[in-house]
């Protein structure tokens, strides 16, 4: 129903007084506050029907909002028509659109993106106009002011919240994007990846490289032996961490009540913001909006921002062609280097209205109850828990051997390794999506680094060194994995480049980092990031060492010459085949029966999977030198029935 469809103005006071002989149900059973009843009467005077108002009053009382907010969120009333009616009631001009070029930029302008109330609109030949967004709660106040000063009507006009927000975004766009790309580097330069090698890092890297080359030339056998021992130890440490994750009783912890009770958090719900960065995602726009529409959270308490690059006309057109509800807002990011996902997220952060904010990717299908679980977890957790990570589950494991192993990898990471790190209070390298944050603290630590290619891992480790902590929740987000080698390789190269950036950023002052994180967390960080990078880069080398030692032992009959060579051989066997076994076991152990059937026998391709991971790592090392801030875009396609498990 639309504004004016119900002309019955007989009053709403009877909503609390049911007809004689009828039981009290619905709105009639409630005792509404005077403010809600006042809003109801005003809305009746504007021609809105009693059934719609009564329903909005119920929701407003449950959600701690206003009747006006619930009506606009319901989609039953058009925002433009509604505020035009308020303008008519106040006898003021109505301005449905605001030219951003006529709005003067300034620091105060940013407040209008979160709380659109007033905006000064200039004109070259006429006095400026103050645009207001009136609300029912202040309607009497504004009416009294206009009656006292009638001349004020000449300099006032009414507009919609959407129009004011849009004008504020656009008028301050160049200032804001400049601040976005400079802020972290200028306020906390040691935490920014804008400079790849900081201070003496480049000098030390050069010294180490020259030393290795000189050693390889002058003492090749000793150099190879030393390299073999170092790689063996790093590999073994990495294997032990993942083996410990495999042995953790995560499933038992879940059964014993670790999941927060979603009904335990009582009272009105806060505004929850959702950020989705999109670039060349027109093919999945409809699927994304459909998934976000399913989120179980009051529409009046949702703030969904679809963050698009300003020159991505196809994605913007695809979104505008959809029937977006009032909780959606398309945010346009000006063209500015670097063109990365974290820059887009950081650009949108000042406009976030929610007490909590989560990040999704364009292809994501989050569980409808994920926001409620995250909110309950935040309410039950200490204040220093500012981030929650939901698990990512791959749904197209049947499609190819690549997607099957990707699904296996994600199951081990998000449902095995990260929960273990969470339970032990160790730093969490976050996933790129489905992280939930306390908004105030996220802003305080500087948001995302626009120059880091794995902004998720960087942010998770940065907040840990600053004294905050992360935990995991259990309601998943569903995704599809890349199914072709070029797409997979491009995505994985970007990830390795970001992990290299993250390690270099955190290792600018190693002693200070160890003091901030604590030595156990510092050691785990080295194993997870440095160990993972080193093991990926050196995987073919370790295989080469194993082949050589095997050949030596076969040549000698039954054993290699010397105890060191024998134990290195044993270490290589344990590291390679043990790593394969833990990778497979950790993933399969966290999967359900349906997921395991989808993977099937394709776990046998794990050795090939690890070799192409090594290729991606070497490509990333090259790109870090040649194009550190280039973003390898991963294309996405809508989910098809045959792509689901």
TrEMBL record:
It comes from the Bacteria. GO terms for cellular component: membrane. This is Glycosyl transferase. InterPro entries: Glyco_trans_2-like, Glycosyltr_2/OpgH_subfam, Nucleotide-diphossugar_trans. Its main location: membrane. The chain crosses the membrane at residues 203-223, 229-251, 527-551, 563-588, 600-621. It is found in: Membrane. The keyword Glycosyltransferase applies. It is a multi-pass membrane protein. Residues 357-553 form the Glycosyltransferase 2-like domain. Keywords: Glycosyltransferase, Membrane, Transferase, Transmembrane, Transmembrane helix. The keyword Cytoplasm does not apply. Residues 1-29 are annotated as: Disordered.
């Amino acid at each position: 129903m639309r504004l004016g469809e119900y002309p019955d103005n007989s009053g709403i006071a009877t909503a609390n007084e049911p007809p004689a002989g009828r039981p009290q149900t619905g709105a009639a059973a409630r005792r509404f506050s005077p403010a809600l009843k006042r809003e109801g009467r005003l809305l009746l005077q504007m021609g809105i029907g009693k059934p719609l108002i009564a329903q909005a009053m119920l929701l407003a009382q449950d959600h701690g909002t206003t009747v006006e907010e619930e009506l606009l969120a319901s989609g039953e009333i058009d925002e433009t028509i509604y505020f035009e009616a308020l303008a008519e009631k106040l006898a003021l001009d109505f301005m449905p659109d605001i030219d951003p070029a006529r709005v003067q930029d300034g620091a105060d302008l940013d407040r209008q993106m979160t709380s659109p109330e007033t905006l000064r609109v200039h004109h070259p030949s006429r006095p400026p106009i103050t645009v207001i967004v009136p609300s029912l709660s202040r309607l009497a106040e504004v009416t009294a002011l206009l009656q006292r000063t009638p001349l004020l009507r000449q300099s006032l006009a009414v507009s919609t919240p959407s129009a004011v927000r849009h004008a504020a975004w656009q008028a301050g766009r160049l200032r804001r994007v400049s601040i976005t790309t400079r802020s972290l580097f200028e306020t906390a330069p040691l935490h920014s990846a804008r400079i790849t090698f900081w201070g003496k890092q480049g000098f030390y890297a050069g010294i180490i490289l020259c030393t290795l080359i000189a050693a390889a030339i002058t003492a090749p056998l000793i150099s190879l032996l030393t390299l073999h021992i170092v790689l063996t130890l790093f590999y073994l440490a990495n294997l032990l961490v993942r083996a410990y994750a495999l042995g953790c009783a995560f499933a038992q912890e879940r059964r014993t009540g670790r999941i927060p009770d979603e009904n335990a958090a009582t009272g009105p719900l806060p505004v929850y913001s959702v950020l989705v960065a999109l670039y060349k995602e027109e093919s999945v726009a409809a699927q994304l909006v459909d998934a976000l529409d399913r989120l179980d959270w009051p529409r009046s308490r949702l703030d969904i921002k679809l963050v698009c690059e300003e020159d991505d006309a196809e994605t913007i057109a695809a979104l505008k062609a959809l029937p977006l509800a009032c909780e959606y807002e398309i945010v346009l990011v000006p063209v500015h280097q670097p063109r990365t996902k974290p820059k887009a997220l950081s650009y949108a952060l000042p406009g976030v209205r929610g007490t909590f904010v989560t990040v999704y990717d364009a292809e994501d299908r989050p569980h409808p109850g994920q926001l409620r679980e995250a909110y309950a977890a935040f309410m039950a957790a200490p204040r220093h828990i500012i981030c929650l990570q939901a698990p990512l589950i791959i749904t197209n494991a049947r499609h190819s051997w690549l997607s099957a192993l990707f699904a296996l990898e994600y199951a081990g990471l998000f449902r095995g390794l990260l929960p273990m790190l969470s339970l032990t209070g160790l730093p969490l390298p976050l996933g790129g999506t489905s992280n939930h944050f306390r908004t105030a603290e996220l802003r305080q630590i500087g948001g995302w680094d626009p120059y880091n290619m794995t902004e998720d891992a960087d942010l998770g480790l940065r907040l840990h060194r600053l004294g905050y902590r992360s935990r995991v929740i259990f309601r998943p987000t569903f995704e599809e994995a890349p199914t072709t080698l070029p797409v997979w390789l491009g995505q994985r190269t970007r990830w390795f480049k970001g992990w290299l950036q993250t390690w270099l950023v955190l290792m600018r002052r190693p002693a200070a980092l160890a003091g901030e994180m604590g030595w156990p967390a510092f050691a785990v960080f080295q194993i997870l990031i440095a160990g993972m990078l080193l093991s990926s880069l050196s995987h073919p080398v370790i295989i080469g060492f194993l082949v050589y030692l095997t050949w030596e032992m076969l040549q000698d009959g039954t054993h290699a010459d010397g105890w060191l060579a024998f134990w290195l051989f044993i270490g290589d066997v344990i590291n390679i085949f043990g790593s394969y076994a833990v990778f497979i076991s950790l993933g399969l152990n966290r999967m359900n029966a349906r997921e395991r059937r989808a993977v099937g026998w394709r776990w046998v391709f794990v050795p090939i999977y690890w070799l192409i991971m090594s290729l991606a790592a070497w490509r990333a090392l090259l790109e870090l030198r040649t194009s550190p801030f280039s973003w390898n875009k991963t294309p996405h396609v809508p989910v098809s029935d045959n792509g689901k498990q």
